[in-house]
Amino acid sequence: MVGLSRRQVLGAGLGLAGLTACGDISAREPQRFIPPARPGQKVHLTYWSWLKDLQKVCDIWNERHPDVEVEAVWIPVGNAGGYQRLFSSLAAGGGPDLAQVELRQIPAFLLVDGMVDLSRYGARQHAREYDEAVWNQVVFDRGIYGLPQDSGPCGFFYRADVMREVGGAPPATWAEWAELARRYREADKYLEVFSLGDTSLFASLAAQAGARWFRVEDDGWVVDMTDEATTRVAEFFDAAIDDDLVDVSVDALSTGWVAAAASGRIGAVTNGSWADALLAEVGGTEGLWRVAPMPTWGPAGFGSAQNGGSSVSVLRNCEHPKEAVDFALWMTTTREGIDAMIEHCGIGWSPAAGYIGQSRREPSEFFGGQRYNQEVFAPAAQQQNERWIWSPTTQQTFNVLGDGFREKITGESSIVEACRVAQDETVAMLRNEGLKVRAA
Q1: Does the pLDDT at position 420 exceed 70?
Q2: pLDDT digits over 336-352, tens only?
Q3: Is residue 403 part of a domain?
Q4: Banded pLDDT at 329 (limits 50, 70, 90)
Q5: What domain count does the chain have?
Q6: At what angle do helices 228-242 and 174-186 cross, to 10 degrees?
Q7: Is position 211 within any domain?
């Protein structure tokens, strides 16, 4: 369990307007316990999410629980406007009962006291039903502020035909990855890209190497983006860019990347398990793709990393939190709920311990008959950096990091320097929110 108290996250209630943009939610009365509905009482819950066809999942629940009806409401993906709607509705005293919130955004909602502590409604007894590394990202001190809904353990997706063409094999380590990347360049191809517009994967690679960018000590935040593990990863990609081993002209899984992968000019991508669905857009390549474990940094690191992941959280103004928790537990831990989310919503990796989903047990025609979910991602989900947590300003940190990555391409900076600048600016961001913070 992460040693981060609600008081530490809220920073004594100081400087919250920058995150809410609509008022100081922390000024409200402390959360009160709301008892369950009376037997036979009709309850209506709303769930705001960017998942497609989520109502079909809710309808299964509704049929079996006629007294607790859940209505799904679509909102844009978080940073495309969904979070602003949530923060605005919370500040106005309204909003949904439940909301899909990325794991990395939970501290931002805690900073505005926007989430219900689910431990008061029976969530704690279900901890062992989730993968530990993902569970740790919704638990702060004695509070539980969401139930893991999906995650993204990373693997190495590659075109087997292109790999044979260059005479290579899936790399077990990042050192082997660099040697393989040179083989691809000799064949006038790129093994992978280095994304400038999405820095979340770089954070995943740092976490895999053993980094802890954010932690809490003595009632304050510590930001450490220049540690040995992060610097190792940064130096590795500084060299890869300098040696032209990675394509920096497109972001991974973008439209441009899909075209390059279809032609065989780009041969692989290291990313979360959810990338399998996006690879289906690479026309004419069915049966050519395979998945291998993510390359590792060595004994000091971890076997995999997580890129992406979200929770289903109960928001502050919910009038029926016990019933909301019951629904969320059904959706994220039962075979019926998990299979329904996979079938209708195409969720990422299920964090439910011991069950990956019935369809994900089957061989995949697109991946040449490989049972890659069982072979690669089930073990990867257990090989995570369990001490990794996020800060209340994660997205802003990613934005600063991206600016530094682009300066690397123009020759004005380096990936190592971008991490140092991002650390300094993150410290300033947190301090501006009234939080106690220091650089490591």
Answers
A1: yes
A2: 999 999 999 999 999 99
A3: no
A4: very high
A5: 1
A6: 10
A7: no
